[in-house]
What does this fold into?
Amino acid sequence: MNNESAQIIRKVVVAGGGTAGWMAAAAISKLIGTHLECPVTLIESDEIGTVGVGESTIPTLKHFHNLLGINENNFIKATGGTFKLGINFENWKTEQHEYFHAFGQTGRGSWACGFQHFWLKAVKDYGLEKEFGEYCLEWRAAKELKFSHLQNDGLNHAYHIDATAYGQFLRRYSGFFGVQRIEGKIEQVNLHGENGNIESLTLASGENIEGDLFIDCTGQRALLIGGALKVPYEDWSEQLLSDSAIAVQTDSHRPPVPFTRAIAHQAGWRWQIPLQTRVGNGLVYSSAHMSDDEAMDTLINGLDGKALIEPRQIRFKTGMRQQQWYRNCVSIGLSSGFIEPLESTSIHLIQSGILRLLKIFPYHGIKQIDIDNYNRKTRYEIERIRDFIILHYHVNQRDDSQFWRDCRNMVVPELLQNKIDAFQQTGRVFHDPQEMFGDSWMQVMLGQGIEPEAFHPIMNTLSKQEMAQFLTSISHNISQALGQLTSHDEYVTQFTANATLDISDGILNASVRGQTNNNQQPHTQTASPNTR
It folds into this structure.
């Protein structure tokens, strides 16, 4: 059957709200709808709750907000947000061991090799005792609990946010650009009798909502892409063993830190995400290695504060739809798949799916070539993120539980094994420029205990004195930048002092305090090496 449709896209229907639905509605209405007379309708039901635990983000969200003209001050105030410089991993390599994955660039490389080769030479031959991360501004700032905006986005950052409040923020924003919200529960997805496309959605009230392009944001239920269109789900649970989580919020009785904590336990890990007035907590675990009761006890015993809500159980299956875009339906968010939030990629994948769609928006009708390109690029991105998450589990030296032994002994994807072997044997990290994670691979592989056997031989041309001068210059630049920072807690208070919850106030002001670079990528170089 021919999947192509010559029908011009005149109406977009977003099925489902939450973070995914309102991010999609906001972006499509602002960047497409207002210019091409393509109205956006969003259907959601107050009876259906949202997962609402995507509270930790990565730096790409800044790019999304710049495109939408969202004022950062107002966004932080509306979401109770704080700033994030990275993730502190505790008990992953071994119990009682920790390392920090920072968002910024570490050191300065050369034409021949990355900075890790300079550091390895200094450690192996010259007795350097400084950690790799000490040559990263974001690493140092996080350790000192500092934050400020620097010129040219010199301190690469993301956010900790209240995900529910973020959805409400974007709902108000979307109304400003004409999005029509319809309250109702989707009872039936109606397919065209000839081409198999989605024709309309019937609500419990009997109302029929027609559209030309449908965005499935119905979460794990995947009512459109999975339920009606029967697109299969690809299961990755053999390589990512965790399948359950429990989430709870606690009060905050200490200043929020500018990083997320990821604390490994005997059958998974737990998170701590500090917001302005509360802390998001959760426990991810494998139900094959830990019972629900054990998981609940582990979470409750690890809380650092009073629970504000009843803990909420979440079941999931790691994987992805075999096709993210099928016929006239694009799946965004949990309907498209799920990778546990270890590296805070959930909101990023929502964002990248939306922006990828907007770049090839089917103005003149849906073309199979566009569908194929969208699906291929989406799969590439998700599989690389999957591999990065598997790395954290697979490369471990823990022997205290069967879970960690199973992770260590599993067969991993070929490209991931190649990355691990290459780094261990040569100190090199091979990754495609299109990959989201760059410097992060080195930080995590070193943190998990991989010790490269060699470094680039060009390092042997540097004397001990030259190496010391080079490393000292990097440390000096970082120290100078640190001197411009204030305490994170104080800065958040100052930053939101003049912010407003009026969504129309400053909505078109994308640049806030020198943030003008719209082309930044997460976890990669954020400034010229010569500026550090």
Summary: The CA atoms of residues 84 and 258 lie 5 Å apart. The chain has three domains: 12-55+162-238+318-366, 102-156+393-498+511-532, 244-314.
